[in-house]
């Protein structure tokens, strides 16, 4: 593929690469739909997070196929996957790994590092908010820096590396809120709602018989990395960049907006803008376009921003929801 001096693909190469990527993405979507019925927006946003090279937090009550979606994506995308079931007694070493003492034939003893489940291309953190904040924080370094440090030694994680975490609503028993610093590491928060009537009818009919759909790998991890690189090379117009900046900055208090000052306790940092830029590119490619638009920014505002903001006590007392607030900010983009 030919690129310009700033790393952007020339027009012909961009079109050819985008067509191949779009065909692969369509195949992935079709294969996922064999196991996940309905929930198109959930599947789309989760895929967008992976295509953008990031992590996603899936939030919903138990029984909405969050775990099944993550397992299916790992298979279909050809990723080496591990799963961690988060529980109150889970320790950081259960995620990262631990050192054990070995003794050879001569009686000499030495430590050997046994890798934990974090050493995978796709890590499923199931019910992540069931574990203590100390254990949740064990994922911080891996999610941001793509390596872990154990006993003073730094070890790289496989590439690509993605964390797809599921979370139960905080109102449920036995849950701990995720630290703000860790929430910010998730590219998107994907809310999983109850399925529509026809989708639930299909679930009843197709998952209670003798045979269930068995998704198969349709691309490789190497091909996924190529698509992720292509997305980073897609051009973004100044209009879209300005819209991203306007949206992110308008969601912060003390920026000259009295309404935001009243409703927002703390807002998104620069990482939110980076997430919007990547996800807007991925969404454009997902829909067969070569460049993102302001509509992409609007569509992604809620999943990208909602876990990076907090409402003031006054806003909560007035019944304001974070979704309504973000929708109002996105509407200002025109």
UniProtKB/TrEMBL annotation:
Residues 55-188 form the ATPase AAA-3 domain. It comes from the Bacteria. One of its GO terms (molecular function) is hydrolase activity. Residues 260-324 form the ChlI/MoxR AAA lid domain. It is an enzyme of class 3 (hydrolase). Keywords: Hydrolase. Its EC number is 3.6.3.-. This is MoxR-like ATPase.
């Amino acid at each position: 593929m030919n690129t310009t001096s700033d790393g952007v693909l020339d027009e012909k190469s961009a079109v050819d690469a985008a067509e191949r990527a779009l065909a692969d993405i369509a195949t992935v979507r079709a294969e996922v739909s064999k196991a996940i019925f309905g929930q198109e927006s959930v599947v789309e946003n989760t895929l967008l997070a992976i295509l953008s090279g990031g992590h996603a937090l899936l939030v919903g009550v138990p029984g909405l196929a969050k775990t099944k979606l993550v397992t299916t994506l790992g298979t279909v995308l050809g990723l080496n996957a591990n799963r961690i079931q988060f529980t109150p007694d889970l320790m950081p070493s259960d995620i990262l790994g631990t050192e054990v003492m070995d003794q050879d034939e001569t009686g000499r003893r030495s430590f050997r590092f046994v890798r934990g489940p974090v050493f995978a291309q796709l890590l499923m953190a199931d019910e992540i908010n069931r574990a203590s904040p100390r254990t949740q924080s064990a994922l911080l370094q891996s999610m941001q820096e793509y390596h872990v440090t154990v006993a003073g030694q730094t070890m790289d994680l496989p590439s690509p590396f993605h964390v797809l975490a599921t979370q139960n609503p905080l109102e449920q028993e036995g849950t701990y809120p995720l630290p703000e610093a860790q929430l910010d590491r998730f590219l998107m928060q994907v809310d999983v709602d109850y399925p529509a009537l026809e989708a639930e009818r299909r679930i009843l009919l197709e998952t209670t018989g003798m045979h269930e759909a068995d998704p198969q790998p349709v691309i490789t991890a190497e091909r996924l990395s190529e698509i992720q690189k292509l997305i980073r090379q897609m051009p973004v117009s100044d209009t879209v960049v300005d819209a991203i900046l306007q949206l992110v900055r308008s969601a912060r208090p003390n920026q000259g907006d009295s309404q935001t000052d009243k409703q927002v306790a703390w807002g998104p940092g620069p990482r939110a803008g980076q997430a919007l830029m990547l996800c807007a590119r991925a969404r454009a490619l997902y829909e067969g376009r070569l460049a993102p638009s302001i509509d992409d920014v609007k569509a992604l505002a809620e999943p990208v921003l909602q876990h990076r903001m907090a409402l003031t006590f006054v806003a909560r007392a007035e019944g304001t929801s974070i979704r309504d607030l973000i929708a109002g900010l996105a509407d200002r983009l025109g």
